[in-house]
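Recap from last week: sequence in, structure out.
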Amino acid sequence: MHLHNFLVKLKTSSKGYPESTFGGKHRAYTCVNAFSYHIVRRNLETYNKLDGIFVDGIFMCKMLNWFWRLPIPRLSFDMTGIAPDLFSTLEKDGRSIYFIGAKPDEIRLSVENISSSYPAMKIAGYRDGYFKDSADRSRVIKELIAQNPDFLIVGMGSPLQEKFAIDIREAGYQGTVFTCGGFLHQTSASIQYYPDWINKYNLRAFYRLYREKGMFRRLFNVLIQFPALFTYDTVRSYFSTRKQIASTKN
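Predicted structure tokens:
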């Protein structure tokens, strides 16, 4: 994968946060990390259509800095990143938000926890992230466009959530879409998923390995596949990309 467009999108996304990110309309944003990097490479057409990409993961932030001298901050859609910034903003300005994702019981509990912590935020509605078929998916998209909440939070896992975000934007949704990965699943247990000491030492990935089933299968992607692929892509892209990236630093 040639990294120029990807790196520029990461840089401009973090540079515009939060003012232009929260202030715009008809946009779709996602977050990527060391695990999802291989998914990005296999779905470039989808990720290229997104208006912005943030980096979710300290390891990936460090690799970007080591290889490209790009000090990209970690901005994940969870309670240690984008979510509290957005929720606090919506409490103040009265714009609405809709949540879609997770299982039926999980999304209900998640929204209850979020609403308890941000009682002044206008929640336009919520539903689970599972569809009976493509017709059901299309129906939900039409209903959300008609309802037109200002923000739509989508948690379906990658790349399904990114494809949904793009499809609803291209179908006419005028608000801002954020994908959120496992945030709605995590928040169903508690609004603060990570203990303070975990956040302090950036041990969130290891905490998820401890708490969530199936996470150990991701170790190969994070510890071996990502650095290998990113190093390979860097070598292929470096000489043609470094001058273009340098020109965006001012």
